[in-house]
Each structure stands twice: as C-alpha cells, then as structure tokens.
Description:
By secondary structure, chain A is mostly beta strands. Chain A has eleven helices and 43 strands.
Amino acid sequence: MSKIKIRGYCDRPSAAPGESLSFYISVDTPGDYEAQLVRIHNGDIHPLGPGFKEVEIDAGSNGTYPGRTQRTQAGSYVQIEDPRGQLGFSDSFSVHAFVSAMAPNRGRQVILSRWDDSTGNGWELQLVDGALEFVIGDGTGKTAKARSDRPLFTDVFYSVVGSFDAQSGTVTLDQISVVNSANSRFGKVVPLDSTTRVTEQTDLVPGAPDVPLLIAGAAEQSDPDRTWVTALFNGKIDSPKVWRGALDAEQARRLSEGETVAPARLAAHWDFAHGIGPDGIPTDAIRDVSGNGLHGSCVNQPDRAMTGWNWTGRQDHFVLAPEQYGAIWFHEDSLDDSRWKADFDLTIPDLRSGNYAMRVRQGENEDYIPFFVLPPRGTATSKILVLMPTASYIAYANSQTAQNSPATQAVGGHFAAIENIDLELNERWKEYGLSTYDYHIDGRGVQYSSWRRPILSMRPKYRHEFGSVWQYPADLQLADWLTASGFEYDVATDHELMEEGVELFKRYNVVITGSHPEYYTEGMVDAWEEYLATGGRGMYLAGNGMYWVTAQHPEKPYVIEVRKGETGDQAWKSRPGELHMSLDGRRGGIWRRRARSSAKAWGVVYTSHCLDVSTSFLPMEDAHDPELAWMFEGIGTDVPIGDFGLVGGGAAGIEVDRYELEAGTPPNTKLVASSYGASRNWVLVPEEQYFAHSGMAGPEHPQVRGDIVYFSTGEGGAMFSSSSMAWISSLSWNNYENNVAQMTANVIRRFAVDGPLEEI
Amino acid sequence: MPLKYPAEYTDRAEDWYQFFARNRGARVLEMVTDEIVEEHRSNPTQTEGHHSVQLHEILNFLRSMPIIGKEFVYIAVPYERYHVGYITERGAEATIDFDVEYATETEAMHDIFLRRLNRIREMAKGQAR
C-alpha cells in the first residue's frame, strides 16, 4: 500500500526569471489538487532549530488542476522501430545473441522479441525460471517453443541461437557456453556441461504483430501512442542479430566462436560498441551495422560500454579494445525519466534568486517539488553565490540503503530510523528509481541517476534514511542562516557550473558550497581551480566534497554517471574492466586517483565518515596567528568551536576532511582548528588504508579528524574550508548566536569585499 | 562430474556464516550485563559520551545482522511518535509493530537493542535443542 499519495517532479533543477519549468504530477486517487509556488527558507523541523519556513508566492501557475495517476515505465531496453516489417517473419528465420544472465530465476525475462504479449503473436527469445526458450506464436493463443534442458548459470556468457524452419516445421534453440578466463564469474577450470540443442516440431507459422523489435523486453501490446514493455531482462546482451532463413548447428557453433555466417541473409546486426570513441559512447543511439537501416534507441539508460563475451581482461578501457565491449547490461529497475505527461508550466516570475518549490496538495496529502531560481542569465544580483550541489542531489536521489544493505547500520553507527518516504521508496522502487548508493535487483551497483522523477529524498521536512538531515534540507539551513543574518546571496546549481564553467563564478566575490558537494565533473573541478587561482574566494562548508568522478549526459543533462570502484568510501565497486565512464570515456573512481584531489582546490581531503555523533573543533597553533585575528573576532581562540549543533551535537561530524600535504593541500595553508574526540564509529576511509590493522578508527587513529583550514591564492583570492558536513547544521543553534555562525560570518564579510584580499 | 544444473550448487559459505553467527552471538551474549543494558538505555546515541568498548563490540554485531527481518525505528510522527519496524524484501510492505509506541526515538532504539539480543538468545536456544 503506497505511503505517499501525491508526488511530482519538474524537468530540470533551475531556471531564471522569464524561463519556464514543466511540472509532472501523479496522484493515487484521481481528483483535483492545488498547486502553489513557495519560497523555502528552512526545511528542517528539528525542535531545537528555527523550524520549517515557507512563504507563498504569487504565480500564474498557482491554482487547481485535475489529478491523474501517471504510469512509469521502469527498466532499460532497446527499441527498434520496424515500420516495414523486416523483422516479422512467416518464413524461416533465426536470431542470435551472446547473453549473460545476472538474475536468471526472476521469472520471465525476454532477451529479444518482436512479440505482442497481449495476443501471443510473433517471436521471442526469452528466459523463464532459469532456462532459455525460443517461442513463436500466431496470435490465436497457439504457441510453439524450444526450451533448454540446461538452466543458465548466473553471470556466465552463452551464445544463443533461436531459429524457425518453415520447411521442416521446427523451432530450435542452440545454447553454447562460451566461458573464457575473464568474461564470466568463474573460469575454464569448471567442467561445465551447459551446452545444448533442443528442437521441437510445430505446424505453427508466427505472426508479424504491429510492435517494434525490443531487446531486453517484450511489448505489452500493439499501441500506436507508446510501447509499454514487460518481462524486462536483467543481464548482459552482446551483438544481437537476425537472419532470414534457419541456421544449422554448425552455423550456431561458428557464431559462438565469433565467426560470421550467412552474411547475405543477415536482416539486422546491432553492434552496441559502434560509436565507442575517446569520449565514450554518450548516446542512446543503437546502430544496425547490417546495412538494412534498422537502427534503434536505448530507453531508461542501460549500462553501456560493458565488458562483452569476448573480453580477455588484457585491456581495462573500452577505448583500447572496443570490440571487446559490445555488451549492454540491462536492468528491470533502471529509470532515466518517468516520462509522465506534463500537468502545467511555471514561467518564473521576477523573483529573487533562491530556493523555491511547487507545493501540491490533495486533501491532507502534499508534496514539495524543489527547484532553484537563478538571477537573470549572465548577471549577478549579489556578491555572494551559494552553489547548490545538484549533481550530488541526483547521485543520492531516492537512496534505499537502510532497507537493503546489511552494512548501513554499522556504517552509520546507529540503528536505522526511517519514515514513510523511505518505506514508499523501497516498496515501489521501480517507479521511483534508484540512487548511486543502491544496487539494481540483479546485484549491479547503480551507475546512472536522473533528476526527472519524483525525488522524495530531496524534500523539505524530510530527515533522511542516514539519520540526520542530508544534503537539501541541510543546505536550506545555510540559506536560512544567511537570510537571518542579513546576507544577500544568489543561488546557482551544479548544472549552471557544468554549463558555464568558471564564468559563472567570476561574477561573484565569494562562492559558498552546500554541505555535501561530493559528485564533481571534470569541468566543475576545473572551474573551482581557475576561480581560486585568479582571485576568487571560496568557502567549503562541507565534508567529503569533490570526491567521485562524475559525468553528465550530453544529450540528457539531467542524467549523471558514476563508476565507483578501485578504492574509496563506497557502496559498490565497478567490476574489472568497467571503471571508465560511458558518457565521457574518462576514468571513474575518486578524483584523488586522477591527481585532482579536493585538497588541491579546497585544501582538505576526505578522511572519515562519522554519522553517529559529532564533536567540536579545537583551535590549533595557527588560530593564534595575528593575521587570522579577523576570523576569530567575537569568538576568541581558547574555546571549542561548534560544541553544539542540530546534527550529532557538534559542528564536526557526519563526514569530515583533513589537511594533507601529500594529497595536495597548498603548502601555505593554515591549520586553524581540528576536531578531537572521535567515537569508535568514526572510521578512516579505505584509500588511506594500506596494510589494514586494528585501530584504524577513532579515537585511536590520528588521521580521523576534521580540519578547518585557510589559505591565500593568486591575485588576492582565498579559501576557507570547515571540512565537515555538520558545520552548516550548527549555524542556527541558539537562535543563530554561536561561534560557528560568528566564524562563518567573519569569513563571508571578508571574502565578499571588492578587490584583492591581503595575502596571508 | 560435469556441472549441468546450477541449483545443485549452493553457496557453501553460508555454512560458515551460520557457524559464525552462532558462535559470535554466544560470545556477544556473554558480554551483555545489566550494566551494559543500562549503559545503552541511558545513552543509546552517545549524546552523553562515547560507548564503552564492550558495548561498542556488542553493537557492531547487532548492527551487522542480516538485512531481512532487521528492526528499524519507524518515525510515525517526527519528534512525537515512534514504533519498531522490520525490514522486508524490496518491493514488499515493511512490517510495523504498532502495538508498542514510543515517545522518543532513543526509547525505540533501546528497544531494538533489547529485541536483537532476544533474537540472539532465541537462536542460541534453537541451537541447544
């Protein structure tokens, strides 16, 4: 039973006055709902904080709308339109693919089809309860099939041929295991008897339904408006092909060895590696290389540039051996766009830049759909820019680790505390999609994530499955404090930074991060580096920032890609040979392993997660440097900084970074203050662990700490880093009167002035 | 000898995990004293100071138990009303124990601590039989 009755999304994270956003709403019970534009000032309902704050805003789109239940197509597949019926056969034909099933016992999963599921018309190559079948049907309810007598081993490549011979009246399935030393879960030492050939007699002639050919699914029915796909496949498919005429056993054997057979009768050959280049394969396009023009398109962003049936393990980058990366990994629970029908558009009024949301209410049920209003394009209306980390919001979107990962409570250092949003996300996971912290149902880590779906984990009033406000509601605390303290600021997002680069930053005297800007594209890293090197001032009020190498989809800017792996504080690891990103061809993993550690730009590098309890920062020697006296104005250098807060009771917590020259901290950096007093659940990150040993956690390990740092950059620039995700959640403590707020304000005032800063 | 049917080959590591759970669980139970239970009751989230090494070790085991059936705090009304829930398979509705209500999150957390210890005790009894 759904826990959430109304939900929605908008088409992109931000817009400037005069621009339009489209909103998509779905309700469980059809009936009217109210839409109201609001500005969100604070999203945390913690009783010791300032409480939830919203202000209703006049807008042309405010009003009543008829609500409807909108359906979501989950799961990834390839759709090949076949308007001339080239792939529907009444005479002999054959299909072939290399297949590696990752969850073979999840019921029925279709690998290749031109099949109307409502009438049983056409043909399909499918996996049913672990065994392959080749099926034909004439649409009258009669079907014929050849079913394998050898169930598939999980994560093992097979060469599979299905054929219909009209002359002999037979359907045949050829299944040949093609395990080599690298392409499958186990290797050649296993004496596998998983090859078989099954033939069945039939007097049926398959029909040719008016549906597209689908790879990794089957059409529910013929539908001129939209093809809905069912029985989605979980696993890898490589080099699917279709022939006119029936292939024999010898031809099936030759196919399993990568040879070409019957080229004159080839009707289609989809080469998933076609288009791989130095910049990856950043497209949904699928190419038919047979010459028959039956090209297609991916839907719901399957995993591209995956190791294929012939991968040898000698090259680990698809650019160096594209012919070994002909596989796509499909999942029944991929989602890159809910693709709902738009309910209404909002033309952004002449609003102050900031954090806004469309509030939709139906009876007692409500949802807030957040977005960000920019200043007019190309302008700044303040000297201060707050950069909302939308790439990171997308990476975490709808995460469900507390209900799926046995390690979550141990990582967090506390028992999970979750609410209806979390239960809804887990119960109806296919409709909401997953985050890069989750696993697909077939065990693969999620490498793509999208804005275009209801992101219930990015909502005001929501705490988070990790046990404290996380990202968006925490970042609203910064916005609330800035407003309460009288600072005027503009808001932009990672998406503007990805689009404009450093030109965005150059319009401001100071740029402030949100609490957890973890996911960074190369262009974003470049922008920060250039901004700071040329007189810009930055405030990193966060922990674990600029960490995961991230790519943005060039055709779908609302989609990001991450390839976790090798090392890092991570939910999953890319499999061997799959660490490079499909969307830009670059190596994934953490920026530190690409020589672009956050320490080079922000002076600190991620060192520990610490989600159980926070602590304070203690002033270090540099705190007494007279050149830094301005930072301690109104505070003093002899008291703890932030021994209070709404998250864990301190300003140092959740995730923290440290000063580290070896990682790239500038040599002129001042170590202002450090946290001391870590609990045993503060654990050193894996990339710092060489020989593992006992004592790699707080309070024993000296690298388990957060550091407040300051340094000057070229042309009068400077950087201040508080190095803790919990910092922002201490700003509003004691009605905004506290030394975290005081220090933050001291830095902002100094950084916001015109002209170069004095070098320290 | 040739391997034909994947269903014939189960994950034998499961034998070890069950062995580990039994034996480690028994050791964890030995570490539980009235003082330890009171330490957790009075300070489940370490806001009043860090847990002792002994409690930390017990909690590591409890927090790392298998995911299905694991207890969680269900936030019915934030800062007002809580229950204990049990994690189910993805796609299935979670089970909530609405018979017991807690006014604070920390009370619910302590009850999870007790419930998990009870589960280990039951597991130990089953083993004894």
